[in-house]
Amino acid sequence: MAPIISVQNLTKTYANGFQALKGINLEIERGEILALLGPNGAGKTTLISIICGIANPSGGAVVVDGHDVVKDFRATRTLIGLVPQELTTDQFETVWNTVSFSRGLHGKKPNPAHIEKVLRDLSLWDKKDNTLRQLSGGMKRRVLIAKALSHEPSILFLDEPTAGVDVTLRKDMWNVVERLRASGVTIILTTHYIEEAEEIADRVGVINGGELLLVEDKQQLMAKLGRKQLILELNDPLDTLPDCFAGNGLSIEAEGNRLVYEFDARNEHESVASLLTRLGENNIHFRDLSTRQSSLEDIFVSLVGAAK
Question: Which residues form a coiled coil (predicted)?
Answer without folding.
Answer: none
